[in-house]
Amino acid sequence: MAFKEDFKNGRWPFGGEGQSDTVPIPKGDVCVKISEMLASADEHVGEYSFGGLADTLPAAPGLFVDGVGTISLPLHPAQAEKLIEKCEKSRFGYSTVTKLDESVRKSWQLTPDQVEIKNPRWRTGIEKLTDMIASRLGYKGIFLQCMLYKLLVYGEGGHFLKHQDTEKEDGMIATLVVQPPSTHRGGDLIVYWGGNVEHRHEFGKKDGTAPFFCHYAVHYADAEHALEKVTKGFRLALVYSICLPASVRHLKRDSDQTLGVDLTDVISSMEPEHESFALLLSHEYTKKNIADLGSGALKGIDRARFRALEEANTAVSADKKLRFYIAKLCVKVCNRLNEEGWESCGYEQALHWYTTSGEDLGRCKDENAKVKLNFLNPGQETLMQLWRDYGVFPICNRCVGGLPPPRERPQPHVSRACS
Predict the structure, then answer these.
(1) Topology given in CATH for the domain delimited by 49-137+145-243
(2) Is the pTM of the predicted complex or chain greater than 0.85?
Protein backbone atom coordinates (compact mmCIF):
# COMPACT_ATOMS: atom_id res chain seq x y z
CA MET A 1 0.00 0.00 0.00
CA ALA A 2 1.28 3.46 -0.93
CA PHE A 3 2.43 5.67 1.92
CA LYS A 4 -0.18 8.31 1.10
CA GLU A 5 -2.96 5.73 1.30
CA ASP A 6 -1.94 4.67 4.80
CA PHE A 7 -3.11 7.99 6.25
CA LYS A 8 -5.85 9.04 3.83
CA ASN A 9 -8.34 9.10 6.71
CA GLY A 10 -6.65 12.26 7.98
CA ARG A 11 -5.18 10.63 11.09
CA TRP A 12 -1.39 10.78 11.18
CA PRO A 13 1.08 9.31 13.70
CA PHE A 14 1.28 10.75 17.20
CA GLY A 15 -1.76 12.99 16.95
CA GLY A 16 -1.27 14.57 13.54
CA GLU A 17 -4.46 15.53 11.72
CA GLY A 18 -5.15 16.72 8.18
CA GLN A 19 -4.70 15.82 4.54
CA SER A 20 -1.35 15.02 2.96
CA ASP A 21 -0.92 18.65 1.80
CA THR A 22 -1.85 20.16 5.19
CA VAL A 23 0.90 22.29 6.78
CA PRO A 24 0.56 21.51 10.51
CA ILE A 25 0.95 24.27 13.09
CA PRO A 26 2.00 23.48 16.68
CA LYS A 27 -0.53 24.02 19.45
CA GLY A 28 -0.05 27.05 21.71
CA ASP A 29 1.16 30.56 20.90
CA VAL A 30 4.52 29.96 22.58
CA CYS A 31 5.25 26.82 20.54
CA VAL A 32 4.21 28.63 17.36
CA LYS A 33 6.78 31.36 18.18
CA ILE A 34 9.51 28.80 18.89
CA SER A 35 8.76 27.04 15.60
CA GLU A 36 8.97 30.32 13.68
CA MET A 37 12.21 31.32 15.40
CA LEU A 38 13.88 28.00 14.62
CA ALA A 39 13.27 28.71 10.94
CA SER A 40 15.96 31.41 11.19
CA ALA A 41 18.39 28.81 12.58
CA ASP A 42 18.32 27.26 9.12
CA GLU A 43 20.54 30.14 7.96
CA HIS A 44 23.39 28.60 9.98
CA VAL A 45 23.05 25.13 8.49
CA GLY A 46 26.06 23.52 6.85
CA GLU A 47 25.87 22.50 3.20
CA TYR A 48 24.23 19.18 2.31
CA SER A 49 26.67 18.37 -0.49
CA PHE A 50 29.45 20.28 -2.24
CA GLY A 51 32.63 19.73 -4.21
CA GLY A 52 34.98 21.06 -6.85
CA LEU A 53 38.69 21.46 -7.50
CA ALA A 54 40.78 20.02 -4.65
CA ASP A 55 43.48 22.67 -4.84
CA THR A 56 45.01 21.63 -1.50
CA LEU A 57 45.96 18.24 -2.97
CA PRO A 58 48.90 17.53 -5.29
CA ALA A 59 47.95 16.29 -8.75
CA ALA A 60 50.33 13.35 -8.26
CA PRO A 61 49.46 11.58 -4.98
CA GLY A 62 52.09 8.89 -5.51
CA LEU A 63 49.61 6.00 -5.39
CA PHE A 64 51.40 2.69 -4.99
CA VAL A 65 49.93 -0.83 -5.03
CA ASP A 66 51.98 -4.00 -4.53
CA GLY A 67 52.24 -5.98 -7.74
CA VAL A 68 51.23 -2.99 -9.83
CA GLY A 69 53.71 -0.32 -8.79
CA THR A 70 53.17 3.42 -8.85
CA ILE A 71 49.86 4.28 -10.49
CA SER A 72 50.28 6.75 -13.34
CA LEU A 73 47.59 9.40 -13.63
CA PRO A 74 45.42 9.79 -15.58
CA LEU A 75 44.97 6.02 -15.37
CA HIS A 76 46.29 4.18 -18.45
CA PRO A 77 44.06 1.31 -19.72
CA ALA A 78 46.85 -1.27 -19.51
CA GLN A 79 47.69 -0.34 -15.92
CA ALA A 80 43.98 -0.15 -15.08
CA GLU A 81 43.54 -3.77 -16.12
CA LYS A 82 46.55 -4.76 -14.04
CA LEU A 83 45.15 -2.85 -11.06
CA ILE A 84 41.76 -4.53 -11.41
CA GLU A 85 43.45 -7.93 -11.20
CA LYS A 86 44.59 -6.98 -7.68
CA CYS A 87 41.13 -5.76 -6.65
CA GLU A 88 37.99 -7.53 -5.54
CA LYS A 89 34.56 -6.80 -6.92
CA SER A 90 32.61 -4.27 -4.89
CA ARG A 91 29.67 -5.51 -2.88
CA PHE A 92 26.74 -3.50 -1.51
CA GLY A 93 24.71 -3.65 1.66
CA TYR A 94 21.29 -5.30 1.54
CA SER A 95 19.42 -5.48 4.85
CA THR A 96 21.92 -7.12 7.23
CA VAL A 97 24.08 -8.76 4.53
CA THR A 98 26.25 -7.71 1.60
CA LYS A 99 25.50 -8.79 -1.94
CA LEU A 100 27.26 -8.93 -5.29
CA ASP A 101 25.11 -7.84 -8.23
CA GLU A 102 26.63 -5.89 -11.13
CA SER A 103 23.20 -4.62 -12.19
CA VAL A 104 23.20 -2.64 -8.92
CA ARG A 105 26.90 -1.91 -8.47
CA LYS A 106 29.79 -2.53 -10.83
CA SER A 107 33.23 -1.55 -9.60
CA TRP A 108 36.41 -2.95 -8.06
CA GLN A 109 38.01 -2.02 -4.77
CA LEU A 110 41.10 -2.13 -2.57
CA THR A 111 41.20 -1.64 1.20
CA PRO A 112 43.45 1.04 2.80
CA ASP A 113 46.09 -1.50 3.81
CA GLN A 114 46.54 -2.41 0.13
CA VAL A 115 47.17 1.19 -0.94
CA GLU A 116 50.11 3.47 -0.18
CA ILE A 117 50.12 7.22 -0.88
CA LYS A 118 53.77 8.26 -1.05
CA ASN A 119 53.57 11.99 -1.73
CA PRO A 120 54.19 13.62 1.70
CA ARG A 121 52.14 16.65 0.67
CA TRP A 122 49.03 14.49 0.33
CA ARG A 123 48.53 14.17 4.09
CA THR A 124 48.84 17.92 4.72
CA GLY A 125 46.58 18.55 1.74
CA ILE A 126 43.91 16.21 3.13
CA GLU A 127 44.16 17.95 6.52
CA LYS A 128 43.58 21.36 4.91
CA LEU A 129 40.73 19.98 2.82
CA THR A 130 39.13 18.41 5.91
CA ASP A 131 39.33 21.72 7.75
CA MET A 132 37.49 23.43 4.90
CA ILE A 133 34.94 20.60 4.80
CA ALA A 134 34.30 20.96 8.53
CA SER A 135 33.49 24.64 8.07
CA ARG A 136 31.15 24.05 5.13
CA LEU A 137 29.36 21.23 6.94
CA GLY A 138 28.73 23.59 9.85
CA TYR A 139 31.51 22.33 12.15
CA LYS A 140 33.88 25.30 12.03
CA GLY A 141 36.55 25.00 14.71
CA ILE A 142 35.91 21.29 15.26
CA PHE A 143 38.68 18.91 14.20
CA LEU A 144 36.94 16.30 12.06
CA GLN A 145 38.71 13.04 11.35
CA CYS A 146 39.24 11.92 7.74
CA MET A 147 39.96 8.22 7.23
CA LEU A 148 40.60 6.43 3.94
CA TYR A 149 37.91 3.79 3.42
CA LYS A 150 38.57 2.37 -0.04
CA LEU A 151 40.15 2.87 -3.42
CA LEU A 152 37.56 2.27 -6.14
CA VAL A 153 38.06 1.53 -9.84
CA TYR A 154 35.28 1.86 -12.41
CA GLY A 155 35.61 0.62 -15.96
CA GLU A 156 33.28 1.20 -18.89
CA GLY A 157 29.74 0.47 -17.67
CA GLY A 158 30.79 0.86 -14.04
CA HIS A 159 28.09 2.40 -11.87
CA PHE A 160 26.25 2.30 -8.54
CA LEU A 161 22.47 2.74 -8.33
CA LYS A 162 20.85 5.09 -5.81
CA HIS A 163 21.73 4.09 -2.24
CA GLN A 164 22.77 5.37 1.18
CA ASP A 165 26.15 4.78 2.81
CA THR A 166 26.36 2.62 5.90
CA GLU A 167 28.16 3.90 8.98
CA LYS A 168 31.70 2.69 8.32
CA GLU A 169 33.38 4.33 11.32
CA ASP A 170 32.24 5.47 14.75
CA GLY A 171 30.84 8.98 14.54
CA MET A 172 30.78 9.05 10.73
CA ILE A 173 28.81 12.03 9.43
CA ALA A 174 29.87 12.41 5.81
CA THR A 175 31.64 10.82 2.85
CA LEU A 176 34.48 12.47 0.93
CA VAL A 177 35.23 11.26 -2.60
CA VAL A 178 38.55 12.35 -4.12
CA GLN A 179 39.05 11.75 -7.82
CA PRO A 180 42.69 12.03 -9.01
CA PRO A 181 43.38 13.30 -12.56
CA SER A 182 41.24 11.32 -15.00
CA THR A 183 40.18 11.28 -18.67
CA HIS A 184 37.13 9.02 -18.36
CA ARG A 185 33.69 10.03 -19.55
CA GLY A 186 30.44 9.70 -17.65
CA GLY A 187 30.54 8.64 -14.02
CA ASP A 188 28.94 11.72 -12.48
CA LEU A 189 28.04 11.50 -8.78
CA ILE A 190 24.39 12.40 -8.19
CA VAL A 191 23.24 13.39 -4.69
CA TYR A 192 19.53 13.46 -3.88
CA TRP A 193 17.46 15.35 -1.31
CA GLY A 194 13.83 14.39 -0.72
CA GLY A 195 13.95 12.06 -3.72
CA ASN A 196 15.02 14.81 -6.12
CA VAL A 197 18.44 15.54 -7.64
CA GLU A 198 20.10 18.12 -5.39
CA HIS A 199 23.70 18.08 -6.67
CA ARG A 200 25.55 16.73 -9.69
CA HIS A 201 29.30 16.34 -9.22
CA GLU A 202 31.16 15.99 -12.53
CA PHE A 203 34.69 16.29 -11.09
CA GLY A 204 36.10 18.83 -13.54
CA LYS A 205 34.96 17.21 -16.78
CA LYS A 206 32.85 20.21 -17.77
CA ASP A 207 35.64 22.80 -17.61
CA GLY A 208 38.36 20.44 -18.85
CA THR A 209 40.38 20.36 -15.60
CA ALA A 210 39.67 16.68 -14.80
CA PRO A 211 42.85 15.33 -16.50
CA PHE A 212 45.14 17.75 -14.67
CA PHE A 213 43.94 18.14 -11.08
CA CYS A 214 42.32 16.27 -8.21
CA HIS A 215 38.64 16.99 -7.61
CA TYR A 216 36.43 16.16 -4.67
CA ALA A 217 32.80 15.77 -3.59
CA VAL A 218 31.30 15.65 -0.10
CA HIS A 219 27.86 14.52 1.01
CA TYR A 220 26.28 13.58 4.30
CA ALA A 221 26.54 9.86 5.02
CA ASP A 222 22.77 9.38 5.00
CA ALA A 223 22.28 11.24 1.70
CA GLU A 224 20.90 9.13 -1.12
CA HIS A 225 23.35 9.16 -4.00
CA ALA A 226 24.24 7.30 -7.18
CA LEU A 227 27.14 7.04 -9.59
CA GLU A 228 26.11 7.24 -13.23
CA LYS A 229 27.64 4.81 -15.72
CA VAL A 230 31.17 5.39 -16.92
CA THR A 231 30.79 5.54 -20.70
CA LYS A 232 34.46 5.53 -21.66
CA GLY A 233 37.79 4.88 -19.96
CA PHE A 234 38.52 4.13 -16.32
CA ARG A 235 37.61 6.13 -13.22
CA LEU A 236 39.70 6.01 -10.03
CA ALA A 237 38.37 7.31 -6.72
CA LEU A 238 39.63 7.49 -3.14
CA VAL A 239 36.74 7.32 -0.67
CA TYR A 240 37.17 8.76 2.83
CA SER A 241 34.94 8.70 5.91
CA ILE A 242 34.50 12.07 7.66
CA CYS A 243 33.93 11.46 11.38
CA LEU A 244 33.20 13.41 14.53
CA PRO A 245 35.63 12.89 17.42
CA ALA A 246 34.05 11.44 20.56
CA SER A 247 34.68 14.73 22.35
CA VAL A 248 32.42 16.70 20.01
CA ARG A 249 29.49 16.53 22.41
CA HIS A 250 31.38 18.98 24.62
CA LEU A 251 32.09 21.42 21.81
CA LYS A 252 29.90 24.32 20.77
CA ARG A 253 29.60 26.36 17.61
CA ASP A 254 29.26 30.14 17.64
CA SER A 255 25.61 30.89 18.27
CA ASP A 256 23.30 33.47 16.74
CA GLN A 257 23.14 35.90 19.66
CA THR A 258 19.91 37.59 18.54
CA LEU A 259 18.11 34.30 18.02
CA GLY A 260 19.45 33.02 21.35
CA VAL A 261 18.11 35.99 23.32
CA ASP A 262 14.71 35.85 21.63
CA LEU A 263 14.42 32.09 22.15
CA THR A 264 15.42 32.45 25.79
CA ASP A 265 12.65 34.99 26.33
CA VAL A 266 10.03 32.78 24.70
CA ILE A 267 11.10 29.62 26.54
CA SER A 268 10.99 31.58 29.79
CA SER A 269 7.37 32.53 29.06
CA MET A 270 6.23 28.91 28.80
CA GLU A 271 3.67 27.83 31.37
CA PRO A 272 3.12 24.28 32.70
CA GLU A 273 0.04 23.83 30.51
CA HIS A 274 2.25 24.08 27.44
CA GLU A 275 3.70 20.73 28.51
CA SER A 276 6.01 19.66 25.69
CA PHE A 277 6.91 19.95 22.04
CA ALA A 278 8.71 17.73 19.54
CA LEU A 279 10.96 18.42 16.58
CA LEU A 280 11.33 15.88 13.78
CA LEU A 281 14.86 15.47 12.44
CA SER A 282 15.69 15.66 8.75
CA HIS A 283 18.69 13.31 8.76
CA GLU A 284 18.92 9.64 9.65
CA TYR A 285 21.00 8.32 12.56
CA THR A 286 22.00 4.83 13.63
CA LYS A 287 21.37 3.51 17.11
CA LYS A 288 25.15 3.28 17.62
CA ASN A 289 25.61 6.91 16.54
CA ILE A 290 23.10 8.12 19.11
CA ALA A 291 24.45 5.83 21.85
CA ASP A 292 28.04 6.97 21.26
CA LEU A 293 27.50 10.69 20.70
CA GLY A 294 23.98 11.52 21.82
CA SER A 295 22.99 14.95 20.50
CA GLY A 296 26.59 15.34 19.26
CA ALA A 297 25.64 13.05 16.37
CA LEU A 298 23.16 15.58 14.99
CA LYS A 299 24.18 17.21 11.73
CA GLY A 300 23.13 19.88 9.30
CA ILE A 301 19.74 21.45 9.88
CA ASP A 302 19.10 19.15 12.86
CA ARG A 303 22.24 20.34 14.60
CA ALA A 304 21.52 24.02 13.93
CA ARG A 305 18.00 23.83 15.34
CA PHE A 306 18.87 21.75 18.37
CA ARG A 307 21.89 23.89 19.26
CA ALA A 308 19.72 27.01 19.06
CA LEU A 309 17.29 25.47 21.55
CA GLU A 310 20.05 24.10 23.78
CA GLU A 311 22.01 27.35 23.94
CA ALA A 312 18.89 29.45 24.62
CA ASN A 313 17.92 27.01 27.36
CA THR A 314 21.19 27.60 29.23
CA ALA A 315 20.11 31.19 29.95
CA VAL A 316 16.65 30.23 31.23
CA SER A 317 16.03 30.21 35.00
CA ALA A 318 16.19 26.81 36.70
CA ASP A 319 12.43 26.55 37.20
CA LYS A 320 11.75 27.23 33.53
CA LYS A 321 14.42 25.09 31.86
CA LEU A 322 13.46 22.52 29.27
CA ARG A 323 14.68 18.94 29.46
CA PHE A 324 15.76 17.41 26.17
CA TYR A 325 15.49 13.78 25.09
CA ILE A 326 16.10 11.94 21.85
CA ALA A 327 13.40 9.50 20.81
CA LYS A 328 12.92 7.12 17.93
CA LEU A 329 9.34 6.93 16.70
CA CYS A 330 8.09 3.66 15.29
CA VAL A 331 4.75 3.27 13.53
CA LYS A 332 3.25 -0.06 12.52
CA VAL A 333 0.46 0.38 9.97
CA CYS A 334 -2.18 -2.38 9.95
CA ASN A 335 -4.01 -3.07 6.67
CA ARG A 336 -6.85 -5.40 5.73
CA LEU A 337 -8.20 -6.67 2.43
CA ASN A 338 -11.82 -6.07 1.51
CA GLU A 339 -13.81 -6.17 -1.73
CA GLU A 340 -12.41 -2.81 -2.82
CA GLY A 341 -8.80 -3.74 -2.05
CA TRP A 342 -6.44 -2.95 0.82
CA GLU A 343 -7.40 -0.37 3.43
CA SER A 344 -5.79 0.90 6.61
CA CYS A 345 -7.45 -0.33 9.79
CA GLY A 346 -5.31 1.50 12.31
CA TYR A 347 -1.75 1.52 13.53
CA GLU A 348 0.40 0.99 16.58
CA GLN A 349 3.00 3.42 17.89
CA ALA A 350 6.15 3.05 19.96
CA LEU A 351 8.82 5.39 21.31
CA HIS A 352 12.40 4.47 22.17
CA TRP A 353 13.91 7.06 24.49
CA TYR A 354 17.51 8.26 24.92
CA THR A 355 19.12 11.08 26.87
CA THR A 356 21.02 13.71 24.91
CA SER A 357 24.23 12.04 26.10
CA GLY A 358 23.13 8.74 24.50
CA GLU A 359 21.90 6.80 27.55
CA ASP A 360 19.22 4.27 26.56
CA LEU A 361 16.07 4.88 28.64
CA GLY A 362 14.00 2.10 27.10
CA ARG A 363 11.04 1.68 24.82
CA CYS A 364 7.31 2.35 25.34
CA LYS A 365 4.64 0.74 23.19
CA ASP A 366 1.45 2.65 22.47
CA GLU A 367 -0.88 -0.01 21.03
CA ASN A 368 -3.95 2.22 20.87
CA ALA A 369 -2.11 5.19 19.37
CA LYS A 370 -3.12 7.49 22.23
CA VAL A 371 0.20 9.35 22.60
CA LYS A 372 0.00 12.76 20.94
CA LEU A 373 3.01 15.00 20.37
CA ASN A 374 3.03 18.72 19.69
CA PHE A 375 5.28 18.96 16.64
CA LEU A 376 7.11 22.12 15.70
CA ASN A 377 7.31 22.80 11.98
CA PRO A 378 10.02 25.42 11.31
CA GLY A 379 10.36 24.30 7.69
CA GLN A 380 6.63 24.78 7.00
CA GLU A 381 6.44 21.27 5.58
CA THR A 382 3.26 19.39 4.76
CA LEU A 383 2.22 16.27 6.66
CA MET A 384 3.33 14.22 3.66
CA GLN A 385 6.76 15.85 3.67
CA LEU A 386 7.17 15.47 7.44
CA TRP A 387 6.29 11.78 7.54
CA ARG A 388 7.57 10.58 4.18
CA ASP A 389 10.80 9.55 5.87
CA TYR A 390 10.36 8.27 9.40
CA GLY A 391 13.33 9.07 11.64
CA VAL A 392 14.74 10.00 15.02
CA PHE A 393 13.91 13.30 16.65
CA PRO A 394 14.63 15.28 19.79
CA ILE A 395 11.72 15.85 22.16
CA CYS A 396 11.85 18.21 25.08
CA ASN A 397 9.63 18.95 28.07
CA ARG A 398 9.62 21.17 31.12
CA CYS A 399 11.48 20.28 34.32
CA VAL A 400 8.38 21.02 36.39
CA GLY A 401 4.90 20.27 35.11
CA GLY A 402 4.34 18.73 31.72
CA LEU A 403 5.40 15.16 31.06
CA PRO A 404 7.57 13.28 33.56
CA PRO A 405 10.85 11.95 32.15
CA PRO A 406 10.63 8.57 30.37
CA ARG A 407 12.25 6.55 33.16
CA GLU A 408 9.46 7.70 35.53
CA ARG A 409 6.64 6.80 33.17
CA PRO A 410 4.78 3.47 33.39
CA GLN A 411 6.33 1.03 30.95
CA PRO A 412 3.75 -1.12 29.12
CA HIS A 413 4.65 -4.28 27.26
CA VAL A 414 7.30 -3.52 24.67
CA SER A 415 7.57 -5.25 21.31
CA ARG A 416 9.31 -4.43 18.05
CA ALA A 417 7.49 -2.13 15.68
CA CYS A 418 8.40 -1.28 12.12
CA SER A 419 8.78 2.21 10.77
Answers:
(1) Jelly Rolls (2.60.120)
(2) no
